[in-house]
Amino acid sequence: MTAKFVFSGYYPGLIGRVVELHGSFYAENWDFDVSFETQVAMELGEFMHEFKPSRDGVWAARLDGEFAGSVFIDGKEAMQDGARLRWFIVSPKVQGHGLGRLLLAKAVDFCRQRKYPKINLWTFKGLEAARVLYLDAGFVVTQEHNVDQWGGNLLEQRYDLKL
């Protein structure tokens, strides 16, 4: 199957869809509790409230009109600590069809066009499909530490990409 994804920026309802997919995916696959979903909702809401198109980026993908995935770039600290890649997720319904790679490329290209010196992201060990995408794009792990959050113990990781 060759998926025909349609890409856009923000559209009404996107915030809710991103929060819902994060909440359901991580609860079902990682047993995360409600604190994770509420953190995503609060931080994404704050990001969109302060969103500046010259600095920040939003990419949403749909397939047959249905939300399929997203990635965001927070450029607030881009020239100091690097742009922050956030809320990168692909619906399990369309995983394996190249959407993650396409979304990640859009975010990296956005940062290159703005001449940001680097991109960073926080994730945790165990998300293998995402890890492969990050490494293929040139990201490297720069920090790791154990954290007790969202109902479990995780090895949190920071990845950086120098541009």
TrEMBL record:
Keywords: Transferase. One of its GO terms (molecular function) is N-acetyltransferase activity. It comes from the Bacteria. InterPro entries: Acyl_CoA_acyltransferase, GNAT_dom, NAT_camello-type. The keyword Endoplasmic reticulum does not apply. The keyword Metal-binding does not apply. Residues 5-163 form the N-acetyltransferase domain. PROSITE patterns: GNAT. PANTHER family: GNAT FAMILY N-ACETYLTRANSFERASE (PTHR13947), LD18367P (PTHR13947:SF37). This is GCN5 family acetyltransferase.
